[in-house]
Specification:
The chain has 134 residues and is α+β, with helices and mostly antiparallel strands. Helices cover 19% and strands 36% of the residues. The structure holds cobalt (II) ion. Cobalt (II) ion binds next to strand 1 and strand 6.
C-alpha cells in the first residue's frame, strides 16, 4: 500500500531562490517554477536519485501555505508525500483508521499531473501527509 517517498516539501517565500543552492553546490537538477493556482502554490522541484525536494511558495491571496510561511519566515518543512498504488483505496483505509482527509476528500491533480490528497498532521505525528497516485 505504501510506495516510494515521492517528495519532501519545504515552504518558503521564494522557491526559485531557495532551490538555487541545490544546483550550485550539489549540482542537482532544478525544475522551472510552475504555478499551481488550484493549490495556491508555485513549485520548484529538485531531483535527487531516490526522491525529490519540492520547494513551494504562496500563490494568490488564499494560498493554504501563506500562514505557514508567515510563521516560518526562513522556510520550513511543510509536508511529506508518499506514492500509493491506488489513491482511493488508500484514502478509504486511512479514513477507516480515523485519519482526517483535508478538503472535500476528492483527489486533486497535483504537481506531477497525478491525483493527490492530504491528511491532517494531527493524525500523522505532526507531519502533514500527501499521498500521490503512483
Ligand atoms: Co507535495
Amino acid at each position: 500500500m505504501l510506495g516510494r517517498l515521492n517528495h519532501v516539501a519545504i515552504a518558503v517565500r521564494d522557491a526559485k531562490k531557495a532551490a538555487r543552492i541545490y544546483g550550485t553546490a550539489f549540482g542537482a537538477e532544478i525544475s522551472d517554477a510552475v504555478p499551481l493556482p488550484e493549490h495556491g502554490v508555485t513549485t520548484v522541484f529538485v531531483t535527487l536519485p531516490n526522491t525529490k525536494i519540492e520547494f513551494i511558495e504562496p500563490l494568490g491571496d488564499a494560498s493554504p501555505i501563506a500562514k505557514f510561511v508567515e510563521r516560518n519566515a526562513d522556510g520550513g518543512i511543510h509536508h511529506v508525500c508518499y506514492d500509493v498504488p491506488d489513491i482511493i483505496a488508500v484514502r478509504d483505509r486511512l479514513i477507516g483508521e480515523g485519519a482526517r482527509v483535508l478538503g472535500d476528500g476528492q483527489p486533486k491533480i497535483g504537481a506531477h499531473g497525478k491525483p493527490v490528497l492530504f491528511f491532517h498532521p494531527k493524525d500523522f505525528s505532526g507531519a502533514l501527509v500527501e499521498i500521490e497516485q503512483a
